[in-house]
Structures are given as structure tokens and as C-alpha cells.
Design brief:
By secondary structure, the chain is of the alpha/beta class. Helix content is 27%, strand content 27%. The protein has 2 domains: 34-257, Alanine racemase (TIM Barrel); 271-369, Lyase, Ornithine Decarboxylase, Chain A, domain 1 (Beta Barrel). The chain is built from 11 helices and 21 strands. Strands 3, 12, 15, 16, 17, 18, 19, 20 and 21 form a 9-stranded mixed sheet that branches. Helix 1 packs across helix 3 and helix 5 crosses helix 6 (129-142). The longest helix is centred in the middle third of the chain and has 15 residues, at 202-216. The protein is globular. The structure holds pyridoxal-5'-phosphate. The site of pyridoxal-5'-phosphate has 12 residues, from helix 9 and strand 11.
């Protein structure tokens, strides 16, 4: 390709530059600490009874961490099952060579999708008899048993059989010859709320309802069937919620969903968000910064322009509410966060230069900023913060 710019002719083919030649740390990136994932899983498993298994929930690309990488380290740490939300997420793990049992937590309701799940050795979550019949037919068609988990609703009102129907229909489902019931589960709606340990809390009521259902169908944790109810919060409450498997997401990534009970937990955040300083300028007193000029300097101010913005997943409503770490010091972000850049007040620092690396999430020295801090500031939950990071941020593995 030859391009004529002004009066010069430049032969680009002679100097090809590929995307992969660009340094992933050129602008802004996410560091994934695989070992932190393995350590967290090992630690969380130490809180479980011996016969209780650990399902690592790696949906939404491993909560933004890279599902493949997370799966590898979670398995190293002792996870024996993986949970994904979608068919595509499951297939992606299978095609990258993951052999561990995978449960699809979302619902598949067409025969076509269920066949794809079957062929990729992915276990669907089944919430009604109709889906069960389809699975049985697929099993029959291939002369095999279709492995699946049954889900029963105990108060979330999302997926799962109605409890009375489940009890009615379980005998029939059990008699299907071409399915293999690998698990029976339910999901807690409010385990992260402060009252979860009170005997009358909705979390306890869900647990009791689940136990009663299991009793009615004559299944307990001693069967080969995996019985599971707990997410991270449920798992951390106490062993009553464990049955013989737990499904853990948030805590495996290094955060506690419980504000009260997390004092003694030793979880290591696996995600660090880092950014390069792209430009430095000094503005006078009384000068507006960024769109709308909503921040006006109250003194002569030194600004660092960071190359990260809301198109990378840093929510715009965090404008003016977050800080950035550089060498053990915190610097406030000022002015509106823009699509691709944001400004930080670095007045007083002579060390920060163009090309310096600042930390938005993670730790440096004795300073730590967590997605939980961002969630509080932007009136959301840490799960949403983790899921908001876009693919424009390269994921860089660090041990
Ligand atoms: C996402 C999810 C989990 C994991 O929840 P965390 O709170 O992140 O531990 C567990 N079970 C189901 C059904 C889920 O959808």
C-alpha cells in the first residue's frame, strides 16, 4: 500500500506494524495475579468441610479477569468445577482445553442450544420438566446420559422449578434413563445483607426451604449428587450453607461481599488497574478542567493526564470521587472523566513524569484501592465494577 501524504510517498508495506507489536502497557492495562486466585481458592477451601467441593464461578470472562486464566489458577488452587453464564462462555473454555466439569448457570431452552451444550460436555441448568424431556431425548439420540444440574427456586424468583412442582416431578425426572442428575441447587437472594445470620432472615428461610425440599425428595449431601446453595456471601456465613459444593465468584477474586464478617479474611485482590501518565501540565488558579469546566483550580495546579476513561470502563459517575496511587501517595482525580482520558491533581510531586505508571485499583506500598471503594462512590456493587472493564484494556498476567 502506498499512501500519498502531501508531497511525499511512503511505502507502508516496508515497515509493517502489527497490533501485537504494541506494548500492552503502552496506555492502560489490567494486571491479573494468577497466584492470588489460586491462593484465594486454597484459603476459601480451607473453610469448607473435607467432602465439600468448590465451583469457581468464571462467568462474564472471569469477572473481567480473563476466564481462561482464572480457570487455570482456580483449578490449581483446588476448584473441581467451573460455572459460566452462557453457552458461548462454556464453549470458549472447552476450546481452550479446559477439561473440568462446567455448569452453565443461565437457562438454555431450545433443543438446538442444549445439543450444543451436550456436544461440548457442558452441563445445563434445568428449571422445568419440558427442558428435562428435551435433555432426555438428546441423551437417547446419542445413546448416552446427558449430565445436568436441576435448579429449584427458594426465594430468588429467577431460575428454578417452583418448589412444589419440583417435589411432585422429581420421581419422574429420576426415572429418565438418558439424563444424569449431577447436581441439585438453588440460589440465595440476600446472603450479603447484614441480617443474614438472624434466624428469621430471608437467607435462613431460603436455606430451610432448600433443606425441606431435599428431605421431601429423599436426597442428601451423602449422595453423589452435588447439592449447592451458597455464593461467596453464603459460603462465608457458615457451614450450614455449604452442603457438598459452593459456587464462589467474588471472594475468589479477592473481595468479601460481607461488610461485617470480613475482618479476619485473608483474600488477595487478583486485579490491578494501571495507567500511564500521557501528559503533564500546570494550570493557574481559577482554571476549569475537563468537559463542562466543573472542576476549577483553587490554586496553581499540576495536572497529570492519564490515558484511561469511561470507554475503558472507569464509570463517568466516579468523576472527582476517586484517587490514584503513585509510590505510596494518593492523588485525587479532578474534572469529568472523559471517554479516553482523565486528569489527576499531582501538585507537589516532582517524581511523577510523562510515562510514569499510576495505580487506579490494587495496592502500592501501604495504599490500597478496591472495587468496593469505587462501588461505594458510584452507588453500585463491586461485581458491576469488575464487569465494566472493556476489552480495550489488555489483560496482562503477573505472577
Ligand atoms: C454469579 C453467581 C454465583 C457467584 O456469586 P458471587 O456472589 O460472586 O460469589 C453463584 N451462583 C450463581 C447462580 C451465580 O449466578
Amino acid at each position: 500500500m502506498q499512501i500519498k501524504q502531501t508531497n511525499q510517498i511512503f511505502n507502508f508495506e516496508k515497515y509493517p506494524i502489527l497490533e501485537k507489536d504494541i506494548d500492552p502497557k503502552q496506555r492502560a492495562w489490567i494486571e491479573i495475579r494468577g497466584k492470588a486466585i489460586a491462593t484465594n481458592v486454597r484459603y476459601l477451601k480451607s473453610l469448607l468441610s473435607k467432602n465439600c467441593q468448590f465451583m469457581a464461578v468464571v462467568k462474564a470472562d472471569g469477572y473481567g479477569h480473563d476466564a481462561k486464566l482464572v480457570s487455570e489458577y482456580a483449578i490449581e488452587g483446588g476448584a473441581s468445577q467451573l460455572g459460566v453464564a452462557t453457552l458461548k462462555e462454556g464453549i470458549k473454555l472447552r476450546s481452550s482445553g479446559v477439561k473440568t466439569p462446567i455448569l452453565i448457570l443461565g437457562n438454555l431452552y431450545t433443543k438446538k442450544d442444549l445439543i450444543i451444550a451436550f456436544k461440548n460436555d457442558l452441563m445445563p441448568t434445568i428449571s422445568d420438566l419440558r427442558e428435562c424431556l428435551i435433555c432426555n431425548n438428546i441423551g437417547k439420540q446419542f445413546g448416552l446420559k446427558f449430565s445436568l444440574h436441576l435448579k429449584v427456586d427458594t426465594g430468588m424468583s429467577r431460575l428454578g422449578f417452583e418448589s412444589y412442582k419440583f417435589i411432585q416431578e422429581f420421581e419422574k425426572i429420576k426415572s429418565f434413563e438418558n439424563i444424569s442428575i449431577e447436581g441439585i441447587y438453588s440460589h440465595l437472594s440476600s446472603a450479603d445483607e447484614e441480617n443474614s445470620l438472624d434466624s428469621k432472615s430471608s437467607t435462613q428461610l431460603q436455606r430451610l426451604k432448600f433443606k425441606e425440599i431435599l428431605k421431601q425428595i429423599n436426597v442428601d449431601s451423602n449422595h453423589n449428587i452435588k447439592i449447592h446453595l451458597a455464593n461467596s456471601a453464603g459460603m462465608l456465613l457458615n457451614k450450614d450453607f455449604h452442603f457438598n459444593m459452593v459456587r464462589v465468584g467474588l471472594s475468589m477474586y479477592g473481595y468479601s461481599p460481607l461488610s461485617k464478617i470480613d475482618k479476619n479474611l485473608v483474600l488477595k485482590p487478583a486485579l490491578f488497574l494501571k495507567v500511564k501518565v500521557a501528559f503533564i501540565r500546570v494550570i493557574d488558579q481559577g482554571v476549569g478542567v475537563s468537559y463542562g469546566g466543573k472542576f476549577v483550580s483553587s490554586r496553581k495546579t499540576k495536572l497529570a493526564v492519564l490515558s484511561i476513561g469511561y470507554a475503558d470502563g472507569v464509570l463517568r459517575n466516579l468523576s472527582g470521587k476517586i484517587k490514584v496511587i503513585f509510590k505510596n501517595k494518593l492523588y485525587p482525580q479532578v474534572g469529568s472523566i472523559t471517554m479516553d482520558q482523565m486528569m489527576v491533581d499531582i501538585t507537589g510531586s516532582d517524581e511523577i513524569k510523562v510515562g510514569s505508571t499510576m495505580v487506579l485499583l490494587g495496592s502500592e506500598g501501604d495504599k490500597t484501592i478496591s472495587p468496593i471503594d469505587w462501588a461505594r462512590e458510584s452507588n453500585t456493587i463491586p461485581w458491576e465494577i469488575l464487569c465494566s472493564f472493556k476489552n480495550r484494556l489488555p489483560r496482562v498476567k503477573v505472577d
